[in-house]
Amino acid sequence: MSRSGVARTIDHDEFDPIGTLALVVLYFVVLTVMWLFTYFVEFLGHGPTVVGLLPLG
Amino acid sequence: MTRLFVDEYPGQARLVRAAFLNSFVALAIGATFGLIQAFHRTDIYRFLPSPDYYTVLTGHGVFLVISFVIFFLVGLFHWAITDSLGQRPSRAWLSWGWYGLMSLGTLIIAASILGGFMEEPPEVLGAPLSADVLFTFYAPLQANPLFYLGLIVFFAGTWLAGADWFRTWLTWKGEHPGKRIPLPAFMVLTTMIMWYLGSIGVIVSLVAFLVPWSFEVIPGVNPLLTRTLFWFFGHMVVYFWVLPAYLLWYNVLPTLSGGRLFSDPLARVVFILFVLLSTPVGIHHQYMDPGIAEGFKFVAMTNTMFLLLPSLLTAFTVVASMEHGARQRGGAGTFGWIRALPWKDPAFTGMALAGAVFAFGGFTGIVNAGMNINYLVHNTLWIPGHIHTQVGTATALSLMAGSYWLVPQLTGNRLVGRRIALFQVVTWFLGIVFMTNAMYRSGLFGVPRRTAEPQYSFEYDVGIGSMGELNAQIALGGTLLFVATVLFLGVMLLTVLNRDSEPLVDGTIPPALSGPEDSPRILDNLKLWAAIAIVLLVLAYALPLASVIQGGGLHGQDIRPYPVVLVDAVQHAGTILGVPIH
C-alpha cells in the first residue's frame, strides 16, 4: 500500500487523460446498449407485466 | 513508512475509533436484517411472521443509513479535519459531547425499533414501544415518541459535530491568514453546510409535528406536510451519505493508484454544487403525491438534472487521477493503463469497484429523476435497487475499503488478512451486482417495494428469465453481501487485536496536479455559497410548502395515526383481502 510502484513522475502538462476519455465513451456506449436491450427486448411487443387481480369478494 | 495519525493525534484517533466502533456494530445488525429480508421477501425461507418484516425493514434502514454511515462519516470527517488542518479540536469535551449525544440518540432509537419484536411491547411514554415506521418516518405511520426523541438527540449530536469542526477551522484560519482551506477540510465544511440547511426540514417535522402528535398534544398532522418536510431532508441526506465516499475518492484513491488528484479546483466546484443543489430537489421523491402541483415537480426535476453535473465531474476527475497513477506506474495504451493499477490492494480495488457501481447506478437515478418515467418505477423494487447501488455500494463499499487504509493508521496495527480483504471487496461487488440487477429488473415488471408479501396473488410476466430466477438472484446477492460484511468485520476485529505489528500503510496525500492556487479564491467563500443555497431553498420550497399548508392545514384534517404495532394489522388486511398472510 505504498507508492513504491511508481516508475516515473508525470507532471500536469505532460498528462493527457486520453484513457479517461476512452472510458467515458465506453460508459455511454454501454448505457446505450443497455437502453436498447431494455426497450426492444424486455418491453416491446409484451403485454401488461403484472397479471392477476386481488380477490376482493 | 510515514507518520501515523495515531502517533500524532492519539486523542483524536481514539474518538475516530469509537465512532467507527459504533458504525461497525450498526453494520452488523443492519446486515443481518438485510439477509432476513432477502429470504423473507423472496419467500425462500421465512422464520418471522410477516408483521415483523416491517420491524426488520425499519431496523435495516435506520441502522445502516443513519447509524452505520453517519457514525463512519463523523469519524472520517474528524480525521480529515484534524489531519488536513494539522490542528486538533481544542475542546475535547465538545468532541466527546457530540459523540455521546449521537450514541445516546442511537440507543434510544434502537430500543424503540427493537421493541417491535416483542409480542406485547411495554407501554413507554404512553404508547407501545414500537417504531415500525421505516426509515422514511413521516405520518400517518406513527412510532413511539422515543423514536422521534432519539432522532432529535442524534441530530443534535451531528449539529454539534459540525460546530466542533467549524470551530477548529476558524482557529486554524486565524493562525494561517490568507491560506487556502486544505481540500479535505473544505469537503468537510461544505458537506456540513449542506447538512445544516437540509436537515432543517426534518427537524421542524420532528419538533413541531411528529413529537407533539405522538404525545397527543396536537390532534393530528397533515401527512403531506410531514412527507414534504421529510423529503426536504431526504434527498440532501443521500449526498450526506455519498460525500464521505467522495472524500475518499478525491483524496485517497489517487494516492493509492500511485498518482495525484487531477484537479483540486474541480473538486471544490463539485462540493459547492452539492451545497447549492442537493436540497432544492427533494420534491422529485414526491412525483406520485397528488397534493403537489405538477409545476413544482417540474422545477424539482430541472434542479435534479443540474445535480447530475457534479457526479459527472467527479467521474472524470477521479478516473483521470487513477489514470495518472497508472501511467506513473508504467501503464500505457488507451485501455492498457487499467492493468497497471494496484488491483491487489483491497483499499484501491474496493473504492474502484464502488465507483464503477456508482457510475451505472447513477444512470438509474436519471430514470428516477424524470417525471414521466418515474411513474413506471416509483413504487417498485427498482427504487431499493437504486439505493443499494448508490448508498449500499458506492458509499458502503468505499467506507469498507477506506477502513483498510485508515484503520491501521488509527490503531498503529498492521492490516490482517489483505487477501481476505481483497476477496471481501470482490464478494461485495458480486453480491450487489446479482441483487440489484434482479431488483432493477423486477421493478421494471411492476414488483412492488416495501412489502413482505410482494407475490399476493399476482403473476409477473418477465420478459427474459423468470420470477424464480430474479428471486434466486436477490437471495444469492443478499447472501454474498452478508458474507462480505462478516469478512469485513472479522478483518477489522483481527486488525484491532494485531497489536504487535507495524502498519504497512502510507498515509501521505500528495498535492494535486492542479492545486488550489489555480482557482479563484471565491471558491473558499463559504458564507457566499451558504447564502446562495438559502436563496435557492426559499425559491424551491416556499410556494410548495405554502400550498401544502393551505390545502391540508398545519395539523391536517381528521387524520388518524396508522396502527404501527403490527401485531394484527397485516393479518387483518389479509382477512379483508381474502388472502392468507403468515
From TrEMBL, chain A:
**TM stretches of this protein:** 21-41
Organism whose genome encodes this protein: Halovivax asiaticus JCM 14624
Q: What is this protein called?
A: Ba3-type terminal oxidase subunit CbaD
Keywords, sorted A to Z? Membrane, Transmembrane, Transmembrane helix
From TrEMBL, chain B:
* Keywords of the record: Membrane, Transmembrane, Transmembrane helix
The entry's protein name is Cytochrome c oxidase subunit I
> Superkingdom of the source?
Archaea
| One GO CC term on file | membrane
**Does this entry carry the keyword Transmembrane helix?**
yes
MF GO annotations: cytochrome-c oxidase activity; heme binding
Q: Which organism is it from?
A: Halovivax asiaticus JCM 14624
Q: Which part of the chain is the Cytochrome oxidase subunit I profile domain?
A: 20-523
Which InterPro entries does the record cross-reference, listed alphabetically? Ba3-like_Oxidase_I, Cyt_c_oxase-like_su1_dom, Cyt_c_oxase-like_su1_sf, Cyt_C_Oxase_1
Q: Which residues cross the membrane?
A: 20-40, 60-81, 93-118, 146-166, 186-210, 230-253, 265-283, 295-319, 347-367, 387-407, 419-440, 474-497, 528-549
Q: Which GO terms describe its biological process?
A: aerobic respiration
Check the record and name the Pfam families matching this protein: COX1 (PF00115)
